[in-house]
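User: quick one, fold this
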Amino acid sequence: MEIPYTISTRPDTGLWNAKIGIWLFLASEVMLFGGLFSAYVFLRLDAQPGEWPHGLLNVPIGTMNTAVLILSSVTVVLAWAALKMRRYNAYWWYMLATISCGIIFLFVKLYFEWPQKFSHYGVFIKPAAREKYEQYLGNHRRDEKGLEPRIEITGHLENHEALTDPNVKEYEIALDPVNADPDNPSNDRPHFIPLPATDKVAKIEKADVERMDSFGPWHSAYFASYFTITGLHGAHVLGGVLVFLYMWLPVSKKVYQRNPEHLANRVEVAGLFWHFVDLIWIFVFPLFYLL
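Assistant:
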């Protein structure tokens, strides 16, 4: 028995089955990501002064990845248009470009962005000991300017044995510029191009540390939200790439030869999902990288 309206449109809705299905699925995705974005906003609004990180993500890399995803939305539309014009060879190349963009996005995320977070540390200083580390925090000037206090010293950990060896009484941190020169007004705002850790090393006594974490999900509500949302988004990108890969392999040509419109419909449905994935990133980029 053949299922009706898998290729042709229904007379009552003007849509075929898969297109109705993808819109229902995308509606559930809106509720999923809408809840996550709402949670992020409320967590940020409820954060105490100095507790919400700023400027810790690589904006140029995020900008590049945004451009890559936007380009992939263009190429998937061109792939669908090529099928509608019965130009299978052009479709093959456009789909390859779409797959390549998705792989580039994931590679940048998994190779350049995420691993760096786990080698960068933030040391939260106890309130009673912050005056002792004023040279790294610069809170006197910030208080005069009405700015939020700094409660964290960030950088690369020089003596990793301090994490596990109870005999080591202090952490040695190669300071980020914001802590190496805290009274520099240029450090009051995040830098568009991230600056590397400096050669200046701060020695922080363990007794003065409230807690110390790498920039993983356990660091703060900010990074918990960042890894949850970008991880879920990355899983969607991977799923889209796998679907496109199936439609790009030689098996797709058999579908095309049997009924070109069938393959075009499949690409259109997958393309709608891909556009939604790109749209989610358009929200992720300013929320996490810019604001």
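User: anything notable?
Assistant: Strands lie at 121-125, 152-157, 170-175, 201-205, 209-214.
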